[in-house]
Design brief:
The chain has helices at residues 39-42, 53-65, 161-178, 218-237, 283-291, 297-305, 312-320, 322-335, 338-359, 371-382, 388-401, 405-411, 420-433, 435-442, 449-459, 466-477, and strands at residues 3-14, 69-70, 73-74, 77-80, 90-93, 100-109, 112-125, 129-132, 138-141, 148-154, 190-200, 210-215, 245-250, 255-261, 271-272, 279-280. The protein is built from 16 helices and 16 strands. A hairpin with a 2-residue loop joins β6 and β7. The protein binds adenosine-5'-diphosphate (ADP) and magnesium ion.
């Protein structure tokens, strides 16, 4: 293609506060329509907004985690438009003085790490929801009206639909790590408008963009953008020009439709909201929020791959989800033994544990095996109490019952046989019983050793120490 795609995303993140941005109504999903309203949400005359401190704390957390500058004194503005889901006739937002600006987000695309610049993160309130029914009826539900949002605006730094998808994944991972939002796209907690333009490869000026609205599922981010890139390329290839417009993504048909020509800022008649004082944040608050930030996904990944020497893929998988990463960290700490120990723990989690979790459709948060129990299980292999093979059975039992490894080993009599005399007795009997194979081995068929080991294991229920068994059989067969 002779065109280079340029993409900038505006992502609305619903903040996980208990109450709404400017009033005390609960901010919850799934309540009966219009159950979560009050005079402020309804825009009744005389009702005054009071800003929710919890929303500020979450926005600061997101701003600081993305390296933004925090404005010590920012402002709320009224953004005017008419729509039935907006009873006041304006949305409280931030305009020329947003809370956070000039941050960045690290996005991993294949093997490359790309830093996407963030223009700004500002606070605003959500609108309600209209449902258009067949016939001429539309329904309005104001439960979502007034729920606090952070709008995260990226610079036009993304160059493909795949990069945009990874950006969304990185942002979702981050807000979940931070506890800023549940980041559930299907419930509208993460909503994305994609700005897309094309320019001739090699050009450094920006082409005319369109803005895609209504990308409401993770699957559709890439699909909608790819579709728009193809649409624009077709027009430009045919010698046409792109209209700057807002388009609506229709997920069902997999196409975008023109919605309106692009609005200008002055269409909204922005002005500072006289009902709200400037939003002031002091140094102590910023320092406290910064201090309380958890280790972030990118830092975790770097530590896992660097300090602990895990493969990049393993580091990515473990750091992808905060609960999984916390589990891994706890198990590594319980087990000790530095990077070597971390690798062993990582292998158990990435193979056995993730398999069982997915097979039983269990969330890591509800994992029946505590991190310390996993560490204790691995320690039982190290001190030769059980073999690696038996450990897998013990693991399954731990997962099924939630019991600790020691209890299971004792109760089921799985303790490894390390008594050389006992193993030798079994080995001698096995050799006597299979004299033909023994003769073949002695005549040079060394490969038969595995057969004898298998027989001894069978006789001992898999409990004979494998290393010792090997040595004893070799001795007896020589
Ligand atoms: P608004 O859409 O509200 O008018 P902006 O003009 O600031 O706001 O742009 C919003 C988003 O559009 C940003 O994410 C920005 O990176 C992106 N953007 C701006 N110009 C272009 C362009 N020519 N091509 C692609 N994205 C663009
Ligand atoms: Mg926009």
């Amino acid at each position: 293609m002779k065109w280079e795609p340029v993409i900038g995303l505006e992502v609305h993140v619903q903040l996980a506060t208990r109450s709404k941005a400017f009033s005390a109504s609960a901010a919850a999903f799934g309540a009966p329509p219009n159950a979560l309203t009050d005079p402020t949400v309804l825009g009744l005359p005389g009702a005054l907004p009071t800003f929710n401190h919890e929303a500020l704390m979450l926005a600061l957390r997101l701003g600081l985690a993305t390296g933004c500058e925090i404005r010590r004194r920012s402002r709320f503005a009224r953004k005017h438009y008419f729509y039935p889901d907006l009873p006041k006739g304006y949305q409280i937002s931030q305009y020329d003085e947003p809370l956070c600006a000039h941050g960045s987000l690290e996005v991993t695309v294949g093997d490359a790490v790309k830093t996407v610049r963030l223009t700004r993160i500002h606070l605003e309130e959500d609108a309600g929801k209209n449902t258009h029914q067949l016939g001429a009826t539309s329904l309005v539900d104001l439960n979502r009206a007034g729920v606090p949002l952070c709008e995260v605006v990226s610079e036009p730094d993304l160059r493909s639909a795949v990069e945009a998808g990874e950006y969304m994944r990185a942002l979702r991972r981050l807000v979940r790590y931070l506890g800023v939002s549940e980041g559930n796209m299907e419930q509208g907690q993460l909503r994305c408008d994609a700005n897309v333009s094309l320019r001739p490869v090699g050009s450094t000026t920006l082409g005319t963009r369109t803005e895609l609205k209504n990308i409401n599922s993770f699957r559709f981010v890439e699909r909608a953008i790819d579709h728009e890139i193809a649409r624009q390329a077709r027009i430009l290839d045919g010698g046409g020009t792109i209209d700057q417009e807002t388009r609506l993504w229709d997920a069902q048909q997999g196409i975008s439709l023109p919605m309106r020509s692009k609005e200008e800022a002055n269409d909204y008649r922005y002005f500072p909201d006289p009902d709200l004082p400037p939003l002031c944040v002091d140094e102590a608050t910023i320092a406290a929020v910064r201090e309380a930030l958890p280790e972030l996904p990118a830092q975790k990944r770097a530590r896992y791959a660097g300090e602990l020497g895990l493969s990049v893929d393993d580091a990515l998988t473990l750091a992808d989800d905060r609960a999984l990463a916390d589990y891994f960290d706890a198990a590594v700490t319980a087990y000790g033994k530095g990077p070597a120990g971390a690798k062993v723990i990582a292998n158990w989690i990435l193979s056995e544990l993730l398999r069982e979790l997915s097979r039983t459709d269990t969330d890591i948060a509800a994992c029946p095996i505590a991190p310390a129990s996993l560490a204790a299980l691995v320690a039982l292999i190290d001190d030769a109490t059980i073999s690696g093979k038996i450990a897998k059975d013990v693991f399954s039992e731990m997962f099924a019952t939630g019991a600790g490894p020691d209890a299971i080993v004792e109760q089921k009599g799985l303790r490894q046989v390390t008594d050389a005399g006992a193993i030798e007795k079994v080995a001698a009997a096995v050799i006597a019983e299979h004299s033909a194979q023994a003769a073949a081995y002695r005549a040079g068929k060394q490969g038969l050793l595995g057969f004898f080991v298998g027989q001894v294991m069978k006789q001992t229920g898999g409990k004979a120490n494998p290393k010792l068994t090997n040595e004893i059989l070799k001795k007896l067969l020589s």
